Amino acid sequence: MAKFVPGIDGSQGGRKRLFIALAVITALGLCVLLVLAWLVPYVGFGRIHPAIPAIMFCLFGLVITAILAGTIILVWHIYTGKPCFGSRQVRGLATRLLLPFMELVARCVGIRPQRLRNSFIKVNNELVLSSAKPIAPKELLILLPHCLQLTTCSRRLTHNVDNCSRCGACPITDLLALRNKYEAELAIATGGTIARRIVLTKKPRTIVAVACERDLISGIQDTYPIPVFGVLNMRPNGPCVDTRVDTGTVEAAIRYFLHLPQ
Ligand code: SF4
Question: Which of 101, 134, 102, 99 is nearest to 220 (CA)?
Fold first, then answer.
């Protein structure tokens, strides 16, 4: 089992506490809504058949218990960094179902969606690190966005990354060097559809993905249950133009997943 390494952070300072607080508030809010959804038509249920209120009580009770238990497992997993029974499934549910509700709650209480997304990436990364299984280099995919390539560069990299001449003007040079050094897979995607196709073709067991918050989150959601360690890109020239990435973080993540010393 991999050791928990909190030092590798691709979220650019995202805060776990924000995600945990919003997850708990959202889960409690959902439970209250479910109780109301059960209470309001309660009388009507009895008129249809005397057994229906009891059946609905069990049904709603089961869903509410599942939400509360899932939230406890999620918070415990985030705090301790230790996977436990059902934590993998809970990570999937939180990623796919809870997060959209959390964004809604965040907006209602005036929290910028970007803060929640950073926090989610931080939490996701720690969960992925803490439950990492040993993999071979070829099972690790480094997935990069097209915007890392210099806009003035005429090399076409989407079909063959080795078309890059390694001129050093953009981070692709260093990232290709990392691919060669660790013998991992590397691909560049121009969008979500291409990224999904790359994942289907290469069938990685772990992905180290570089992207902006929005693309990272949709990538994490789309590729579940494949673990995705997200590294946020830096955008000194605005979104999608000549972006940069901390290659040190990418390398630290690669070494961790390949069980090499840091
Ligand atoms: S390193 Fe140079 S050749 Fe390679 S993608 Fe960047 S700008 Fe183009």
Answer: 99
Angle at 191 between CA 187 and CA 192, to 5 degrees: 95
Q: In degrees, to the nearest 5, what angle opens at C-alpha 213 toward C-alphas 208 and 215?
A: 70
Q: Which of 148, 149, 152 to mutate to test the pocket of ligand 1 (most atoms within 8 A of CB)?
A: 149
Nearest to 125 by CA among 247, 15, 21: 15
pTM check: above 0.85: no
Checking phi first, is residue 19 left (phi over 0); if not, alpha (psi -120 to 50) or beta? alpha
Residue pair 126/6 in contact by the 8 Å Cβ criterion: yes
Tell me which of 144, 153, 159, 174 to substitute to probe ligand 1's pocket, judged by most ligand atoms within 8 Å of the beta carbon: 153
Distance (angstroms) between ligand 1 centre and the Cα of 250 equals 18
Per-run averaged pLDDT (10 residues), the chain, 262 residues: 56 80 92 86 74 85 90 83 74 81 90 90 89 92 97 93 96 98 96 91 96 92 92 94 96 95 82
**Cβ atoms of residues 124 and 230 within 8 Å:** yes
Q: Exposure string (b/e) for 101-135, b if CB count within 10 Å is 16 or more?
A: bbbebbeeeebeeebbbbbbbbbbbbbbbbbbeeb
Nearest CA owner, ligand 1 atom 8:
153
